[in-house]
């Protein structure tokens, strides 16, 4: 019983971290109908920058300064990186591909290419060695911080999207980009802000993840990125609350699997859950059917 | 892009070969007696997940090559090692060994550390009848039924059994937990051998947890193991998974001294990142910088002098031994062909290496002592040596 309880707690912490990453996928998809595969690499780059910043700021000697400062540095860097990726790889295609039949598939392939490029760039710049974060906080506290941060971020993001002009602009683009542009919404600026927000959240998730579970290496984004993507889809891609829900679900399923003798089948069960959810609700748990207007 | 580049490179090479050696039928006259040097290939994980293994191996090989060539080299010709990076992937290992043999015409191949990659490379080397020697792959399958594949280390059968004997007999622990990666050949192989021998010696496996090797969150496993109250946890996994395990174990109130591992722990990263958490842990290995044998101490001194005072890892020591053993075999070979070198390696007896005296047995494995290492004050310390003889199965 105790083990189940502690597995639930670990699962919730793990799930809220996955949810933080899933937000990036969901926001970009919600607006551009683009699956940004490079998102997991923004996560990884954020983790690296966070590590360097934390080390530079004194690491365990000044845990509060290093932790907060490191996280902010990582978020700032990831925000810039996110926009650069969007401006270099996606925006030109959007401009040129207008009216062509393959407008959805080309950016998707570019996103995959961007992902591979960033992975190899990281390998070149930082080498493939595993690097562990210094322990700024005991792990049990880190997990509380993760959960609280994730909940606060979700609430903040929900408010941002529902209550601000920028959020309204995002929703407008999501409904009909062309009409929004005609109504005077600066689409390219709004899209950039979406990428900045998603990437900053990925970096926040990355630093928290590494403080909790240590190693960062050039392919570190792949495993968590896949899970986050699944979480976004389970929750209903494009839906912010759905991402949180999907993340928690995956985190808890994963941890509960570990209690069984079939712990080696963790990923099998996660993906089985994905298929099961999609069979019953093709748009995901909270996704609304028919919102997609093409 | 990569493919285009390598095709161009291959083309250029073929042209080069044609000019130099005339008609080279698929590298048939490789290492002819009149060649100026002994070409030896080394395929290593110089990038990817196990980079530390690859770079450590390379350092050991370079040190050995310099030493061999200082005396003029085997039969008066210097040894030249061609390095290939297999990116820590078995499929790349296959490609690289094929390249080294077909394109470069090497007389022998050195590599790898991870058994999955040595096995992949070994299949190719054996098929091409070029001797391969792995410095540190311990999985039994690597050399099994492959007359051209050797190793300069003990096998996991022996390591797992010796580990169990040490835990049960020397430490007197009877309640044991197992924690290992089920999708990793090395980890699950070692766990199997350990489990059988421990049971035979009268110990009880109170709990067994398997994880996937990309896992980073171990809290649930650790809590469950803790609830089963074992006296020791046998965790035969690689160092990069062990650091997060040790940290999360400490947070859950499981101290480092509760852990026992295998030679996959043997990377300095482990003590750098989780030295404090691992205090008191033991593992079976090939070498420690303070092994009290003369040859080992000579090697440590040479390594430190060359690499800025750093202590060598076991991986480096074994790569050094494997390279020197190969150099020795090339010097003793009756014919200067891959077959001749193979026979000479097979006949190796009483080779004085940095990791102990090596005899190559009939199964092409090294019969040599196993070192028990303890982690103390964030460093690897020699604890004791077990055998040289293989315990009966």
From TrEMBL, chain A:
- Where in the cell does this protein reside? Cell membrane
Record field: transmembrane: 6-30, 42-58, 64-85, 105-125, 145-161, 190-209, 229-256, 268-287
Q: Name one Pfam family in it.
A: BPD_transp_2
Going by the UniProt record, its keywords in alphabetical order are: Amino-acid transport, Cell inner membrane, Cell membrane, Membrane, Transmembrane, Transmembrane helix, Transport
What GO molecular-function term can you cite, just one? Answer: L-isoleucine transmembrane transporter activity
Classify the protein's membrane topology as the record does. Answer: Multi-pass membrane protein
Gene Ontology biological process terms, A to Z: D-alanine transmembrane transport; L-alanine transport; L-isoleucine import across plasma membrane
Instruction: Provide the leader sequence positions.
Output: none
Question: Mind telling me what this protein is named?
Answer: High-affinity branched-chain amino acid transport system permease protein LivH
Originating species: Chondromyces apiculatus DSM 436
Write the lineage as a comma-separated list: Bacteria, Pseudomonadati, Myxococcota, Polyangia, Polyangiales
From TrEMBL, chain B:
Q: Which GO terms describe its biological process?
A: amino acid transport
User: Which InterPro entries does the record associate with it?
Assistant: BCAA_transport (IPR051010), Leu-bd (IPR028081), Leu_Ile_Val-bd (IPR000709), Peripla_BP_I (IPR028082)
Q: Which residues form the Leucine-binding protein domain?
A: 38-377
| UniProt cross-references to Pfam families, sorted A to Z | Peripla_BP_6 (PF13458)
- Keyword set, alphabetical order: Amino-acid transport, Signal, Transport
Q: Which family does it belong to?
A: Belongs to the leucine-binding protein family.
Q: What is this protein called?
A: Branched-chain amino acid ABC transporter, amino acid-binding protein
Question: Which organism does this sequence originate in?
Answer: Chondromyces apiculatus DSM 436
């Amino acid at each position: 019983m105790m083990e189940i309880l502690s597995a639930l707690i670990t699962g919730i912490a793990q799930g809220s971290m996955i949810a933080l990453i899933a937000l990036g996928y969901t926001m970009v998809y919600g607006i551009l109908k683009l699956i940004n595969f490079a998102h997991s690499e923004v996560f990884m780059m954020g983790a690296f920058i966070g590590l360097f910043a934390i080390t530079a700021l004194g690491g365990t000697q000044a845990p509060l300064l290093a932790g907060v400062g490191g996280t902010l540095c990582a978020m700032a860097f990831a925000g810039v990186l996110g926009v650069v990726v969007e401006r270099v790889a996606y925006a030109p295609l959007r401009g040129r591909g207008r009216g062509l039949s393959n407008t959805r598939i080309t950016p998707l392939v570019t996103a995959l290419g961007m992902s591979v490029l960033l992975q190899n760039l990281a390998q070149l710049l930082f080498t493939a060695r595993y690097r562990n974060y210094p322990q700024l906080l005991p792990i049990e506290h880190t997990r509380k911080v993760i959960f609280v941060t994730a909940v606060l971020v979700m609430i903040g993001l929900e408010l941002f999207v529902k209550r601000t002009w920028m959020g309204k602009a995002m929703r407008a683009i999501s409904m009909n980009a062309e009409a929004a542009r005609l109504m005077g919404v600066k689409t390219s600026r709004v899209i950039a802000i979406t990428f900045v927000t998603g990437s900053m959240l990925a970096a926040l998730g990355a630093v928290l993840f590494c403080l909790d579970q240590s190693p960062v290496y050039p392919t570190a984004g792949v495993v968590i990125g896949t899970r986050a993507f699944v979480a976004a889809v389970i929750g209903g891609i494009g839906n912010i609350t759905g991402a949180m829900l999907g993340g928690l679900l995956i985190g808890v399923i994963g941890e509960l699997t570990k209690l069984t003798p079939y712990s080696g089948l963790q990923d099998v069960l996660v993906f089985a859950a994905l298929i099961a959810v999609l069979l019953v609700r093709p748009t995901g748990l909270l996704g609304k059917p028919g919102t997609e207007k093409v | 892009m990569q493919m285009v580049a390598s095709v161009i490179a291959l083309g250029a090479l073929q042209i080069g070969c044609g000019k130099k050696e005339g008609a080279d039928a698929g590298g048939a006259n490789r290492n002819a007696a009149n060649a100026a040097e002994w070409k030896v290939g080394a395929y290593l994980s110089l990038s990817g997940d196990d980079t530390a293994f690859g770079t450590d191996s390379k350092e050991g090989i370079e040190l050995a090559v310099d030493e061999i060539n200082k005396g003029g080299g085997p039969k008066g010709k210097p040894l030249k090692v061609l390095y290939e990076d297999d990116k820590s992937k078995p499929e790349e290992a296959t490609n690289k060994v094929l390249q080294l043999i077909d394109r470069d015409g090497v007389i022998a191949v050195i590599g790898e550390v991870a058994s999955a990659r040595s096995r992949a490379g070994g299949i190719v080397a054996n098929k091409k009848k070029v001797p391969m020697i792995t410095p540190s792959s311990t999985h039994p399958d690597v050399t099994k039924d492959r007359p051209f594949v050797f190793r300069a280390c003990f096998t996991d059968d022996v390591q797992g059994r010796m580990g169990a004997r040490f835990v049960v007999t020397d430490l007197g622990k009877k309640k044991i937990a197992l924690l290992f990666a089920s999708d990793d050949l090395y980890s699950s192989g070692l766990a199997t051998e350990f489990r059988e021998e421990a049971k035979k010696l009268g110990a009880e496996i109170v709990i067994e947890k398997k994880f996937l090797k990309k896992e980073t969150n171990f809290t649930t496993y650790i809590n469950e193991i803790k609830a089963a109250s074992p006296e020791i946890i046998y965790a035969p996994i690689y160092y990069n998974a062990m650091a997060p395990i040790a940290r999360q174990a400490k947070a859950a109130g499981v101290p480092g001294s509760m852990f026992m591992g295998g030679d996959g722990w043997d990377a300095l990263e482990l003590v750098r990142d989780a030295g404090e958490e691992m205090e008191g842990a033991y593992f079976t290995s090939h070498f420690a910088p303070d092994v009290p044998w003369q040859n080992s101490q000579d090697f440590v001194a040479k390594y430190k002098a060359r690499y800025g005072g750093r202590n060598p890892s076991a991986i480096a020591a074994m790569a050094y031994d494997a390279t020197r053993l190969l150099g020795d075999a090339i010097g003793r070979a009756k014919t200067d062909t891959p077959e001749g070198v193979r026979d000479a390696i097979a006949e190796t007896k009483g080779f004085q290496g940095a990791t102990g005296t090596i005899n190559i047995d009939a199964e092409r494995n090294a019969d040599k002592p196993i070192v028990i290492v303890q982690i103390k004050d964030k460093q690897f310390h020699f604890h004791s040596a077990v055998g040289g003889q293989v315990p009966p199965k």
